[in-house]
């Protein structure tokens, strides 16, 4: 019984490239486990451009800035090995495949139990080459797996599933912004995500342009940064909606900015568990999402036409779904009310409690 209550020493290994979902989630996990009384170390292995607050109880090891000339894969491996040796964790948690296969190549006395959490689509094309071979060689050496959806877990065979848990992402919406009173909706459609192929914002701009004459007062706001900014702006110009499509840099007051929008849209091609969609639902926004890969994953978050709308990732279906929500205020209010209620499933308290229980199980196995 004492073992069950023991304080764990946990190492969360992070690649803090910027304002990405995985970056946010591993920081939130470190903060959440620390708040539960555990000794948590956040090991920053590559890049340290954290855009999210780190609890002062979390012990940060910035290896990205302290490798002193050790570059590349070997430098990262050696730096991580020495850091984990000094921490001597009970368990190390990895959201990135590289650090997971590094840990798999080290003795357990250095890494503790090793848990890998898949944050994207396990069937993505990036795993068809060398990375897929590395994953196949790494997984048998790991002690546990956390998947965000049943669809991602079911991609793998029984040996992986038997050592896994399905734990959703927690939402980061401040409680003060979660209200049962629907705001007066502004004529804005919003989307959040990196300006990258995966997020498929081109599809959203095309769908919006199809509706431009029917909803002339509406604007589309896309919050994100990335290499496709110029491409998206050019597309909006070519479709005649450049004056109504706004691409806005990520900001710290994003929830305040989107709370009163009329609609949130997630047009992604693939996702692990989209933080932006969870947050929009928690805020009570009517939401439309594509049926992104892995197929069926969107259905683990949204009950179609109850607390959101799921559509195939094509222009016609997306524009039709947007039309139906914007043209029927009662339907929009129905989706909003149910989305807010469904969002409660992803509270930080519930999610971090599930993580704590699973990590205890792995450590004690």
Automatic annotation (TrEMBL):
PANTHER family: D-INOSITOL 3-PHOSPHATE GLYCOSYLTRANSFERASE, GLYCOSYLTRANSFERASE. The keyword Membrane does not apply. Its EC number is 2.4.-.-. Keywords: Glycosyltransferase, Transferase. This is Glycosyltransferase. Residues 182-341 form the Glycosyl transferase family domain. The lineage of its organism: Bacteria, Bacillati, Actinomycetota, Coriobacteriia, Eggerthellales. Signal peptide: none annotated. Residues 20-171 form the Glycosyltransferase subfamily 4-like N-terminal domain. InterPro entries: Glyco_trans_1, Glyco_trans_4-like_N. It holds the Pfam family Glyco_transf_4. GO terms for molecular function: glycosyltransferase activity. Transmembrane segments: none annotated. It is an enzyme of class 2 (transferase). It comes from the Bacteria. It comes from Adlercreutzia shanghongiae.
């Amino acid at each position: 019984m004492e073992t069950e209550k023991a304080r764990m020493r946990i190492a969360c290994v992070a690649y803090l490239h910027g304002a990405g979902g995985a970056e946010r989630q591993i920081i939130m996990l470190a903060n959440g486990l620390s708040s539960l009384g555990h000794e948590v170390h956040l090991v920053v292995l590559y890049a340290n451009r954290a855009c999210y607050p780190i609890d002062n109880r979390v012990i940060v090891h910035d290896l990205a800035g302290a490798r002193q000339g050790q570059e590349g894969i070997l430098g990262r491996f050696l730096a991580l090995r020495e850091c984990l040796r000094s921490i001597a964790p009970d368990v190390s948690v990895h959201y990135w495949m590289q650090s997971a296969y590094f840990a798999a190549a080290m003795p357990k006395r250095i890494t503790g139990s090793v848990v890998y959490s898949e944050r994207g689509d396990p069937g993505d094309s990036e795993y068809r080459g060398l990375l897929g071979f590395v994953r196949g060689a790494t997984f048998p050496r790991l002690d546990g797996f956390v998947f965000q959806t049943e669809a991602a877990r079911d991609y793998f065979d029984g040996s992986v599933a038997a050592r896994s848990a399905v734990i959703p992402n927690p939402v980061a919406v401040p409680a003060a912004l979660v209200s049962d009173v629907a705001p007066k909706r502004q004529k804005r459609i919003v989307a959040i995500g990196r300006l990258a192929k995966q997020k498929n914002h081109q599809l959203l701009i095309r769908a919006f342009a199809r509706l431009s004459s029917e909803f002339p007062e509406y604007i589309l706001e896309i919050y994100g940064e990335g290499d496709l900014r110029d491409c998206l702006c050019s597309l909006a110009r070519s479709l005649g909606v450049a004056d109504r499509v706004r691409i806005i840099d990520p900001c710290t007051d994003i929830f305040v900015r989107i709370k009163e929008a009329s609609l949130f849209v997630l047009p992604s091609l693939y996702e692990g568990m989209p933080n932006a969609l969870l947050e929009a639902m928690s805020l009570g926004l009517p939401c439309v999402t594509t049926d992104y890969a892995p197929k069926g994953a969107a259905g683990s978050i949204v009950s179609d036409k109850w607390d959101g709308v799921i559509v195939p990732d094509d222009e016609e279906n997306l524009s039709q779904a947007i039309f139906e929500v914007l043209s029927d205020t009662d339907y929009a209010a129905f989706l909003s009310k149910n989305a807010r209620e469904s969002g409660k499933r992803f509270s930080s308290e519930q999610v971090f409690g599930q993580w704590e229980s699973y990590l205890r199980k792995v450590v004690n196995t």
